[in-house]
Description:
This protein is of the alpha+beta class. The chain is 41% helix and 34% strand.
Amino acid sequence: MRLVLKIAVLVALLGSLLWLWSENRRLVLGRKVAQEAAERRESMLQGSVRHLEAELKKAIDQRDHVFATIDERRAELEEIRGERQRQLRRGTKAMPEGVRVALLHMNDQLRHDGYPMLRALRAERIEDKTLFGVELMEYREDLFATVVYTAERLWIELARDTGALTLRCFDGRVFADGIDREMPAEGEEIRLRAVDGELWEERLPFLVRATGEYPLPEKVVARLTSIDRATAEIWAERLDALLSEAKTQLRYRVARVRDIDDGRFGGVLVHGYDEKPTLAASIKAKRLEVRVDDAANTVELVFYEGALLRHGGEVEIGDSGYRMLLPGVTPKVARDRVLGMVVETP
Length: 346
């Protein structure tokens, strides 16, 4: 009996020891699992912290970039504001009298040559055939747009052989269609075709940079002083009145008459405008006849020795002449408009 009791106590003791070992093992394994979970959480937190630190650095860099951009833009705006204030002060400052008179002559010549949409607004001074501190404005009626040129320097370049005039602007800006752009280093060119070069040189000798020679024979040059300028303008107006009666595709305007000889007009320049109105053609000739044909009841202008200029290029007018029929104009009307200065067709 005692032996059985001892065995039972021993078995109970062994069971308790086994249970204690099992519980201890379970606790050890539980702590290990908990430690591994904690390490994983710590690793995840460290990864999150590193990601947040990278995002924060990125945000700080973006903020610094935005602040730098704002500072640059503020500096640009300050520069633009300063430039506008300088232009405003310059625009309200009275021009020297000589400069003012020169711009009046320049604008008058632009109108005379058929470019009334282009005009000089102001300039600061004239030196060495150069206009300084210049502002020009051009109204493009076909686009309902205004172009403004502001330049530190302006040259007026004339090609005597072709009659082309170039206004070359340097160191400035062009404002058009809501866009502000800088002028190219070689200069912004405003090209005008078929101007009265000799008159430009006569009225603005201290500004015009002329090259080449005028293609006029000596006998024509000798006759150019047969009428004065006022008389020439009166005859140009009479020819304008005649052209206004014609139902031509283009609206023609006489920009220049230099001479009258034996019922013919010399040194003539005529511009043709479309309906916009935009300059579409120019005719320059050494001689012009208003020719009437009473039998056919027609009137035409005949141009000799010159050139017809269109957007596609230039066509030379030889000795055979270039004829422009004037639909809707009768010989009687022609004689009335030009006071009988016509050539009758035999």
